[in-house]
Amino acid sequence: MKPYSDRRARLLAMLEPGSVAVIGTAPEVARNADTEYPYRHDSSFYYLTGFAEPEAVLVLAAARGASPAQAILFCREKHPESEIWDGYRYGPDAARAAFGFDAAYPVGALDEHMVRQLSNASALYAPLARGGEAQQRRWFDGVRKLARGGTSAPPVLRDLPPLVDDMRLFKDDHESAVMLRAGAISCGAHARAMRFAGQHGAGIHEYELEAELLHEFRRHGAQYPAYTPIVASGPNACVLHYNANNRRIQDGDLVLIDAGCELDGYASDITRTFPVNGRFSAAQRALYELVLAAQQAAFDAIRPGRKYHDAHDAAVRVLAQGMLDLGLLQGALEDVLAEKRYAQFYMHGTGHWIGMDVHDVGLYRDTAREDKPSRLLQPGMAMTVEPGIYVRPAGGVPEKYWNIGIRIEDDVIVREGGFQLLTGGAPKTVAEIEALMK
Ligand code: GLY
Ligand code: MN
Ligand code: MN
Questions:
Q1: What is the domain-level CATH number for residue 286?
Q2: Fewer Cβ neighbours under 10 Å: the N or C end of the chain?
Q3: Residue 260 CA, closest ligand 1 atom number
C-alpha cells in the first residue's frame, strides 16, 4: 500500500533518533442498546495505515543504533465466531502482508510490547490531547521496573499531531484524485436536488431534498455524508448550522443546501442556493450576484505565495461594498470594514482547510512567529471558498431582503500559478441554475 508506507517513512524520518511514536484509531461508539454509530476510523491513523478496522494501534520506532526503523501494527486477532456476526477481520498476519508493516501483533500484546519499545528510547510521541495518560503510565511503570537492569524510560514526551497535521495539509496525487471524485459526486447530488425542486416546486419538504442528496452520494459509492446536510429554506437559511431539515418549502423561497459526501475517507463540502420555484426574484438575484462576485474575488486571491487570509479579506471587501450599494448598510466602505459592520450580514470566515476532515487539520497562521502572520499558500493545500450573506429582519434593513440567506461554497487545491477547482460540476450562475430547474 504505497501512499501509506511512503507516509510512514516520511514521518519516521522526522522523529528523533531512538524515539517511538504511537497513534491509535478511533473507538467504536454506542448509539443506544446493542446499536453502534457507523464506525469511522481516526483520520491520522488511517492516513498512516490505510487500515479501517477498529481496535488498532500504529507504533513507529525510529532507527536506534544498528536497529532499522520499524512500522508495527497492533490489531484485532482473527475470531471465527465474531466474524460470523460482524464480518471479516484481517488479523495481524494478513494485515502485515496486505498493508506492508514490518510486523503486526494482536492488540492485546500492546502494553508488553511498549514496555520493551520504550526501554532506553529517547522520546515518546503521542497525540497528547487525546488522553491516554493511564496507558502511558502503565508503560512507563513497566519500564521503571526494569531500572535495576540499567533500563530507563524516555525522558521526553512529545505531541505527535503537529507533525502529522502538517503532512495531511498537503494533498498528494492519491488524495487529490479521491477528493476530485468526492467533489464530482457531491456536485451531482446538488444538481439532482435542484432538478427535483424544479420538477416538484413549492410544497416539498426540506427532507425530500436531503433524501435526493443521500441517494446520489450512496449510489456512487460514497460511504456517508461528510457532515450532517443542511437543507435550509426561507428564513432557515439565516441559521448557519440549521439541520432539522423538516420545513415545508413555500413558494418564492430560496433553498440553501450545504452538503458533501465522504468518499474513501475524504470530505467534500459544497453549498448551493437556489429558488424553489426555479426563478430568482429581483431582490434574491441582487444578493446572489453579490455573493458570487465575492467568491470570484476570493478565487482571484488564491495562488502560491498569497496569504491564506487574503481570500477572506477580498470576499469581505466585495460584500461590504455590495451591502452599501444595496442599502443594507450606510456609510463609507473603509469604516464598514474597520468597524466590521458587514458582520451583521456576514459573520463567518470564507473557508477552511479540507481533506480527511471537512474542517481539516493544519495551522492557518505561522504560530512560531510572535505576530502570528497568516500562512502563505503552497501547492497541494486544499481549502473551501464559501462567502455568504444572511439578512435577518431588522430596523433600517430594506424589507425586500428580509430572511434571505445565501452561501456559495466550492473546494479547491492550490496549484502552481493558481488552483484546481474540485467542485466545478454543480450549477452556480443564475442562468445555469434557472436553466437546470426549468
Ligand atoms: N459544511 C460546513 C462548512 O461549510 O464549513
Ligand atoms: Mn459547507
Ligand atoms: Mn465549509
A1: 3.90.230.10
A2: C
A3: 1
